[in-house]
Amino acid sequence: MFCKFLGLILFVGCFCSLVQSQAVDAEGHQWWQHAVFYEIYPRSFMDSNNDGIGDLNGIASKLDYLKSLGIDAIWITPCYPSPQVDFGYDVSDYENIDPMYGTLADFDRLQKAAAQRGIRIIMDFVMNHTSDQHAWFLDSRSSRTAAKRDWYMWHDAKDSAEPNNWVSIFGGPAWTWDAKTGQYYYHYFYPQQPDLNWRNPAVHDAMFDVTRWWYQRGVAGFRLDAVDTLFEDPELRNNPVLPGKDKFGDPNEENLYNAKLPEVHVVLRDLRKVADQNNAVLIGETWTKDVSELKQYYGEHSDELQMPMDFMFTTVDRLSPAEFRRQIAAVDSAGGWPVFVLSNHDIVRASVRYGDGKNNQAIAKLMASLYLTLRGTPIMYYGEEIGMVNNDPVRKEDVKDPIGRVGWPEEKGRDGERTPMQWDDSPNAGFTRGTPWLPVPLSYKTVNVASELKDSSSVLQVYKSLLALRHESRALLDGDYVALNQNDANVLSYLRRYKNEAVLVVLNMSSHPQQVSFDLGPQGFSAKSVRTLVATAPVSKAVSLSHLSLQPFSVYIGAVSK
Ligand code: NOJ
Ligand code: CA
Questions:
Q1: Pocket (CB within 6 angstroms of ligand 1)
Q2: Which ranges in 299-435 belong to alpha helices (H)?
Q3: pLDDT of residue 172
Q4: Ligand nearest to the CA of 127
Q5: pTM score, whole prediction
Q6: Separation of 406 CA from ligand 2 center, angstroms?
Q7: Is residue 285's pLDDT more than 50?
Q8: How many angstroms separate the alpha carbon of residue 225 from the centre of ligand 1?
């Protein structure tokens, strides 16, 4: 039944030209406001040379898949040379590709092939820290008078111990003693990830040159890693200690003096100027606690990040219409362009967080229908479109992510959400003919791209339909968001409204059948029925607005006219 509606929503719009255009519609929207982004963890996407690790040529071989899915931009997590202590988030050369992922020539080929298909590439910019094997740090630690000594945060011991009480988010003190030069260096993350000193203008200039270098290679923007940790208190004041211990056994503390310092915004404004010269987008890894914090990252004059990532959905831990309604309304009123994320390489996959074990596929479709129909830009995570689940390690000795070894068993690390993409039902899910760097879960036999392409009611087909609809519907591209039936505890409903057209989205978040009715008169729509666009349970082509029946966890999306 579902496939009956596919014909109604075939994707016709495309960004055929990737010239340095600005607004893409009469509303003044930019390309990134109409784009669907897709995060690729390169180790795990597709292995072209069968060494068990994904690579750039592997990504290139899947561009047609991404195009047919409806993806406009891919964000590739770090693929630069790196000792891989933090799987690429410890960069030892910002202007190259790690041999395990390929070469710069491979990158250029990928970039060109993607552009030919109207797909842009976003690189991950690890701004806060480098690898301890970066030439800058090797020089910096070589002596107290080294040319780059001040490129990092070196400080004397205090009372024969660390300069202050700051702890690393990855466990242990945030300071490591360097016996050779007799000082501590600072690292918000692992000791192998020393923090750059962003107060040094030479660091600022070198890092800005990196962005220009990649823009010249054709990248369309950056995802800014750990951006709120760029600056630290110059007086190194102790953070306030909070009750309890973290997962690594360290005291909890409020990061008052080593995160979210106001100086971050000066750097963001500068980065934005360079981005604007390149028609590029800046996406921020911004862990904001509420909308007032989120607002700051757009900039007072909308001159900072175009897309600060809003992770608030990832903090909603159950299918609660009231909670989602609250989060959507808050973000929608923040003044900037909303960004929605369900999962990424640091967060347990959404299918596991919301799944009940019995209706996981229906719930995956429900969540997709939610965040792909909201006003704003979604950032998908590879594998989400087939309903991939976590495959968490069960034994400490199997853990690859260092935080999982340090924090075991409470913190199992992030391996579970980083497993190989499941392409088909052949060994290793078609990801590699070698030994995959992380094991594929047994569910790959049915949860895989090839099988789901053949099944008209699969999670993948729902994603394809939703993405097609997003690209062609003016109401979904440009319309406002109007919450409906706000007291309904089971069904989340809203209208996306643009001039004479509107799309009604109705999501049954409960395990029971539900009946809903709508009066859209106050919203300027007098129609009594709605034309079905996407539905995950059998319905007719037109449905009465006064009697809409929904099966458990089902989705109904329809077009409403005046
Ligand atoms: C955030 C990244 O998403 C995460 O994977 C990484 O470990 C830290 N930043 C450090 O770069
Ligand atoms: Ca490989």
A1: 86, 89, 126, 189, 225-226, 285, 345-346
A2: 321-332, 350-354, 360-371, 402-407
A3: 96
A4: 1
A5: 0.95
A6: 28
A7: yes
A8: 7
3-class DSSP state of 408: coil
Q: What is the percent of the chain where pLDDT is above 70?
A: 96
pLDDT at 15: 37
Q: Which pairing describes strands 251-253 and 241-245: parallel, antiparallel, or unpaired?
A: antiparallel
Q: What is the DSSP string of 12-40?
A: -------SS----STT---HHHH--EEEE
pLDDT confidence band for 9 (50 / 70 / 90):
very low
CB atoms within 10 A of CB 556: 26
Rounded Cα distance between 310 and 314, Å, is 9
- Of 225, 232, 304, 411, the catalytic one is 225
Q: Mean pLDDT over all residues of the chain?
A: 95
Angle between helix axes 201-216 and 263-277 (nearest 10 degrees) is 30
DSSP string, 338-356: -EEES--TTS--HHHHH--
Measured CA to CA, the distance from residue 540 to residue 536 in angstroms comes to 12
Residue of 387, 396, 442, 437 lying closest to 553 (CA atoms): 387
Each residue's pLDDT tens digit, 477-526 = 999 999 999 999 999 999 999 999 999 999 999 999 999 999 999 999 99
Residues 102-148 have pLDDT tens digits of: 999 999 999 999 999 999 999 999 999 999 999 999 999 999 999 99
The closest-lying atom of ligand 1 relative to the alpha carbon of residue 86 is 7
> What pLDDT is attached to residue 311?
85
6: pLDDT strictly greater than 60: no
Backbone angles phi, psi at 91, to 5 degrees: -90, 130
In whole angstroms, what is the distance from residue 457 CA to residue 468 CA?
16
**Beta-sheet strands, E only, within 402-490:** 480-484
Q: What is the pairing mode between strands 120-126 and 73-76? A: parallel
Phi-psi region of 485 (alpha: psi -120 to 50; beta: other; left: phi over 0): left
SS3 content of the chain, % helix, strand, coil (to 5): 30, 20, 50
Pocket of ligand 1, candidates 76, 132, 187, 346: which has the most ligand atoms within 8 Å of its Cβ, to mutate?
Answer: 346
Establish whether 519 is a catalytic residue.
Answer: no
pLDDT of residue 20: 42
Cα–Cα distance measured from residue 143 to residue 147, given in angstroms and rounded to the nearest whole number: 9
Candidates 124, 285, 417, 452; catalytic one: 285
CA of 197 to the centre of ligand 2 (A): 34
- Most informative mutation of 89, 227, 379, 381 for ligand 1 (most atoms within 8 A of CB): 89
* CA dist., res. 464 & res. 338, Å (int): 22
For position 5, what pLDDT does the model report? 39
Q: How far is the CA of 22 from the centre of ligand 2 (A)?
A: 37
Quick one: tokens of 357?
């074990």
Other beta carbons within 10 Å of 300: 10
- pLDDT at residue 54 in the model: 98
| Model pLDDT, residue 562 | 85
410 is catalytic: no
Whether 223 and 215 have beta carbons less than 8 Å apart is answered as no
